User: Fold this.
Amino acid sequence: MNLGDSAQKTSTLKKGDTLGKFFWGCADFRVSTLPVLDDDGHIFGAISLYELLGDMMLPHYVAQAAHVLGDESAMLHNIEPDVQEWCDKPIDEFISDKFYVVTPDSSLTKGLALMADKDSTCLFVVDGGVYQGIVTRITIVQRLLDKL
Amino acid sequence: MESTAHFDTAMIVALVTMVLAYIAIFTEIIHRSSAALVGAVVMVGVGSYMGFYSQAEAVLAIDANTMFLLISMMMIVVMLRPTGGFEYLAIKIAKASGKDPRKLLVFLCMAVSVISMFLDNVTTVLIFAPLTVLITRLLDVNPMPYLMAEAMLSNIGGAATLVGDPPNIMIGSAAGIDFLSFMVHMLPIISAVWFCTVGLVIYMFRDQLSQKITIELDLDESKAIKDPVALKKALFALTITILLFFVHHHFHLFPAYVAFIGAALALVLVQPDPEKLYGEMEWSVLAFFAGLFVIVGGVEGSGLLDLVGEQLSGFAKQEGQLLLACLLLIWASAILSAIVDNIPFTVTMIPIVLGLEAQGVPVQALWWALAIGVGIGGNGSHIGATANVICVTESERCGIPEARITPMLWLRKGLPIMLFSLVISTILFALGFDYLR
Assistant:
């Protein structure tokens, strides 16, 4: 089995799309990262919920003190974001160039090694420059289970 | 006494090399430690070529007492930091302030100042600043006055002891001043400055600090301590170190050796992961200091600093002029420290003061004046001390517009506080001059 078999199709994004489209894409395909393609269909960036949710509602000073936070801090509710306002924002300023690409023929071991080494939650599978899908640890486990 | 040295080519070359290195350091064209090391390499190169400075002299110019003291205190801090002890203390004192914003400010500042007296104030502020934002946000008050006060009072706290601030370590090492003597001479003035600064901060931020706190602080300090065993061991080693600092002169122990005893004890007791321990040490700071020592050693080797000392000694030796020289030094070093990094200034001033001593000037009071000036001067601007930069950055990162500490805000609030501190220091210095000299 290779990473091509483990890849999951997802929607893609392009510059000018809104964060709303990104959120719905993540929710529909149960992934936390989506690729951003240029006009030729090549991946040039990615958007991750991990970083975005941090920007939206997790100030660094709260994250650093997570272990001492009580459950009843009223102020923590106040920093929950205005979702509609965020959904209307264009994705452009949140596009990251931190993404990793593999081919459909790459092995599972190589994929896991890349994710571990780069501390990444996913890889984009690209064939001849064209986006084929996303590989996450969950999609790998899913394909392994499919073999049972 | 007539001047025996003359301004020559070697002095000009050494001076130009130092000035260029300092420009690179202050403008941050490249990282300050890189600038200092490049400056050091150039100084040794031109010094060797022109015959005023050698590689052997450059190595000797690096003050081992300062370097080793810094290294060992850094080690103790690196072992103490991940235990969660600082977080525990911050939450405890925030709860003890009893919903009084002024009390909260005083308590936080007191903790930051006392810790900064014995440990690196940059580390103290790095830990306290984000916690302060969290605590104040949970209590629904503006973190800005707290952050500014913590930066300023950590600088002031650090000025009180031999190990509280790198310039003090250098001054103490060069002048052979022991820990207790340093504290006995500096603490009365610094204490007065501390109380005045706190009072002035409360007055200047009276609008923000008059807001009543109605919310209970929902933080669990019992979960702050991540490694209680390591915390106890590291604190034990730190306590032994501090106790030894108070008596090191009786046993003819160098402060650096005392700090090494503490670090060695902590290493044995805590047994940290070496990679983590040495990986978290601030080697760039040490490289910066080593570079500066070599640069100034070159200027000293050229004879320029002796010449400056000779020129100044005529003034300082005159009856009644020494006090004036000290007061000028306090103000000049404070103003310069507000504008540029106080460490290069201190490293440059030390051989000049030593030169004055060689000319027969009683320099003891000048050491205190230098320590006071560079210690307090950092409060004059938002870039005057590293602690200030950390608090300003924290105020920007927290994303609360009204909490943002702008350079103008610092000039409006911080500069008057620094000037007031200097006036207080000047008065106390003049009153206690007979004791200080």
User: Anything to note?
Assistant: Chain B has 22 helices and no strands. Chain B touches chain A at residues 87, 91, 130-131, 133-134, 137-138, 140, 215, 218-221, 223-224, 226, 394, 397-399 (CB under 8 Å). Residues 9-61+85-224+282-436 of chain B form one domain. The mean pLDDT of chain B is 91.
